[in-house]
Amino acid sequence: MEQAMTDVYHFAVAKLNSTNTTLYACGIALALIVVLSLRNLNYTRGVKLPEAPIVGARWWWEPLFITKYRYNTNGWQIIHDGYTKYKDSPFTVVRPESIITVLPKKYVHELRNVPESELYSFQALADDLVGRYSGIDIMLGSDLNFHAVQNKLTPRIGAFTEVVKEELDFAMEKDFLKCS
Question: According to the model, what pLDDT value does residue 92 have?
Answer without folding.
Answer: 87
